[in-house]
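REQUEST FORM: STRUCTURE PREDICTION
Request ID: SP-0412
Submitted by: Lab K.M.
Chain count: 1
Length (residues): 340
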Amino acid sequence: MTEALKVAVWMVTYNHEQFLRQSIEGILNQQTNFTFKLFIGEDCSTDKTRDICIEFKERYPEKIELVLRDHNVGATQNGVEMYKICFASNAPYITLCEGDDYWTDPLKLQKQVDFLDANPDFSICYHRVNVLNPNMESQAEELNSSLLPKVYTIEDLAHQNIIFTPSVMFRNNLAGQLRGWLLESPVGDYVLHMLNARYGKIYYMPDIMAVYRIHNNGVWSTKSEKYRTENWIVMLRNLVGEFKNENTVLRILKNKLAEHLNYLAELNRAENATQTSIENIKEAFAVSDSFTDTWIKNHYDLVVDYDKLRLKYNSSFFVRLQRVVKQPDIIINKLFKRHR
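STATUS: Completed
RESULT:
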């Protein structure tokens, strides 16, 4: 009788010829008392990535399910389709490893499964990783520096994505939920973590059991700061809509969205795109009132150009604005009159 699949390992790969062998071997070398399977989505690479995938599939036909795209569909679609396949496997747990990252502890899967099996009130388990830069210099990541286990909630995760992709394992809770905007989210793993965190707590293991690689051909790391910020904004707008009825999480996400909009305003302002910067600030004010005095002072000249600002905020905000920028009363009074 065939043993039921316990863990589905999700992997997407594109032009990872330099790294893929190490990635796959780190997965296949896992020592477990349960069955796991690697699901690889190969996105029509232009190097020898596909050949490596086929080679491993032929060597380990029972351990690997390989999806070969007949044309390049892009990282988002490839990732979503592989999530669907992993969810449909009916494995109770899903874990992630992209083709340029790799696992270093052969007991990683066993440790995470043991924890989740023993703690049904947790939906996510993750661990610390080493970060390897393009110069092949490795150091422990700084997002998670605790040497002791920690417990987090969805509110903590809403403040910041603290989970590196190759570190996470989560319960298979999301079958059938990848639809609409979720299919096009540019920061897919964070969305998954937020949705999964609705089902339970998050457990952090201090063990370093994987390497997250930063390299010059990375899909995300090669993009500009502005591109990455714009994509985070798209994703956060969608999360705000998704969590519209969950007040605590919603407030955190709105503040986070405002922070990214403010940062984008600064990037646009540096490019002399003043009107676009003002539009960023308008949206930031519309979603959140969490602004520091420093931010108000830096953006004062843009704020006073926002003709409908008075309609959104009461006089207490303008009192604070006046105190921070130390402008004569007449400027603020004129601002009031203009918007009444």
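NOTES: The CA atoms of residues 36 and 289 lie 47 Å apart.
Reviewed by: T.R.
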